Amino acid sequence: MTNPTVPAVSVQHARKAFGDNVVLDDVSLNIMPGEVLSMIGPSGAGKSTMLRCMTLLDRFDSADFSYGDLVVCQRGEGGHSTYDPKAEHAARMRFGIVFQHYNLFPHYTVLQNITDAPIVVQKRNREEVESEAHELLRQLDLTQHANKVPCELSGGQQQRVAIARALAMNPNVIYFDEATSALDPKLTADMQRLIRDLASNGMAVGIVTHEMGFAKLVSDRIAFLFDGEIAEEGAAEQVIDNPQDPRTKRFLSQAED
Fold first, then answer.
1. What was the pLDDT predicted at 1?
2. What's the half-sphere exposure (Cβ side, CA atoms, 13 Å) at 37?
3. Which of 5, 90, 195, 207 is the most buried (most CB within 10 A)?
């Protein structure tokens, strides 16, 4: 059971460097259950690296990092973090991610794409998983596409399959990488409603986006990253409509051009 008073994901004092290039420098970020947090900022600000480390595709050099009560890594002497392999494995069961390009298995049907990880990775009962998958397909208006392969679907349909696949793992947290980059206005509005529905049901949602209008409408909080630091963080409307940091003001004025 998720504790609504404990962050679904917590990253404190994160640092990540590639050689001499410091990409994240003392970044701290929480996402609470039922909250939508968007990370915005210019290219190279550290958003993608932050997302990769939070989804364990990469590792922080140094951070206190946890999913709920599960401690994934802690800073030790000298500042470097020690990762717990068992905790890493358990953490992967607590989040899902919808990639920008969806990353569906091209030779699998829609149903197979959704059920593969719960059956193979989580070792769950096939009948139970397939029953839940059909319910996800119904909720996402994909029932009629269950036996199609990805190339037979539109971009919006592929994205909904990717969302169903992430939700099939029953995560506490779901991440979206550029959720609306290839969507038309109607599908963008549908995505906004879907994300708000997930949050209203207690899901913690983390988003990386370049779409400022979408970030304002869908988010509870926004974190603006600049040169590997969080330059400004606050309520979505406040950050977008009344930014306090001059770097945020400059970025948003350029985004409107």
1. 55
2. 26
3. 207
